[in-house]
Amino acid sequence: MRHRGNRSFHTVNTIKCAFLYNSVSSVISVANYLFSLMSPEIQDTIVAVSSPLGRSLHAIIKISGHEAIPCMKDFFVPASHIDLGEIPTYISVAGRIHTKEDGINIPAVLYIMKQPYSYTKEDVVEIHTLGSPTILEMLLSSILSKGIRAKRNIRLSQPGEFTKRAFLHGRIDLTQAEATMRIIRAQTDGELKVAVAQLAGDVSQQTKRIQDDAVSLCSYIEAAIDFSDQDIELISAEEIMHRLEGMKNNISHLLIQPEIGKVSLEGIDTVLYGKPNVGKSSLINALLGKKRTLVSEIPGTTRDVVADILEIGGIRFKLMDTAGMDDTKEIVTSRAMEKTQSTLKKAQIILLVFDGSVNIDVQLREMKPDDLTGNVIVVINKCDLRKNSSFPESPAELKKYPLMHTSALTGEGLERLKETLIETVLGGQVNLSGGAPIFNVRQKDVLQRSLQLIQQTMESVKNNESYEFIALNLRTAIDALGEIVGEVTTEDILSKIFSEFCIGK
Question: What is the domain extent for residue 7?
């Protein structure tokens, strides 16, 4: 747990006091502050390149810690005669980086953010200078070596350590730290909107409301225990059950939200499957709005699995064009079919594509749709080539699946196909690009455990167990909810989360 050493007793008591005052935010602030004091590594000053690797006109080196400003005096020469230690926060200072040892003499601008008004709540200095990898390496080496000679406790940052310090100092909670990583990794507008909403506190607020209710209820129950020798009923078993039921419903509602890690970041494995020359490659090109896969009138042109990403409403679909079904014994084709079958088994959505210009029953004879797993959508393609305007009745084997009529050439039916893909993923319940908070796998796991603990507490009330036992179960649920925002965490959890960050973030 985040409480360590001999100070853990005082930390726990302080947190209990915060609970009595029904202030979850107080718990966060106190716990994070005390933890920062008990962590020797957080007393270090850290430095890292914060801009992307490679050659560029502009690059940033970030320094955070109590030695951030003093260390700059060793090699930064301001353009005007000013004392870096005396200037106010959020000031930029133009000058030059000058080191005699390495022969560096280049222009630079310092951006100085003093505690507690910086991202990490420590003194932070950003060095903005030329983006030569060689210069940056020499500059980092100079900062570290001069720090050693001056007995300054300066070291290279670990991955995600700047954001980790922001969390430990109470600048952000754990969900906001995870949102920062989501923003960095976002590849679509939808992913970015979700991440920004989480950074603004949407997930935290939803969780805290439930936790506040639990804390309030727990305070009443514990007060009832304290006054059990008095003829006063502070809260009845019926009221306890009613409030627990509300918490259970609220957590259950949050749990129906799709997992962003599976739905958005990785993409939905969507496989196009059908006989050769039914227009699978053309359909992908039409959906993407650009030519990405080889299109040919020669059957069997696609011999391998070809993948590309289609974004619809903030959700990423990994479109995979497979080799068409073919009875030939050609070795190359046979191996391509084996790979196709392997891809089909892993598919989350299968687009079963038919040529609408020829008899579908004939095509269906060589297919086994009942063997397909996952979500199947039937796509009758090449509708522009049909001889009459009416759609023939679908074979009985296909009537259980959603049916789309499309034309890759004219664009007919493509928008409806996209809508059906969205409906298949979200079940019509949630719009990923909208405002509902979306929880990642870790957060959902904590919510699930919290729900189980709330249900256990309800069972205790039903069984007329003592208020002491009910309060104990409820406190455990409160701690579990605290894991979402980072009130209660282990070092392993923190290490895993922040290790996924880039160095310099």
Answer: 1-29
Integer-rounded Cα Rg, in Å, for the chain is 30
Give the 3-state secondary structure of residue 367.
coil
Chain segment 176-185, per-residue pLDDT in tens? 888 888 787 7
CA distances from 375 to 225, 371, 442 (A): 53, 12, 26
- Name the domain count of the chain: 4
Q: Specify if 35 maps to a domain.
A: no
At 360 the pLDDT is 79
Claim to verify: residue 254 and residue 269 sit in the same structural domain? no
Number of other residues whose CB lies within 10 A of the CB of residue 328: 12
Q: Quick check: bond before 78 cis, omega within 30?
A: no
Same domain, 64 and 160: yes
Provide the CA 332 distance to its chain's centre, in angstroms: 40
pLDDT of amino acid 258: 54
Q: Closest Cα to residue 313, out of 149, 434, 220, 464?
A: 434
DSSP secondary structure of 2-50:
---GGGHHHHHHHHHHHHHTT-HHHHHHHHHHHHHHH-GGGGSEEEEE-
Average pLDDT over residues 282-297: 72
Collapsed DSSP state (helix, strand, coil) of residue 124: strand
Residue 254 lies in a domain: yes
**Is residue 196 included in any domain, yes or no?**
no
Domain shared by 412 and 462, yes or no: no
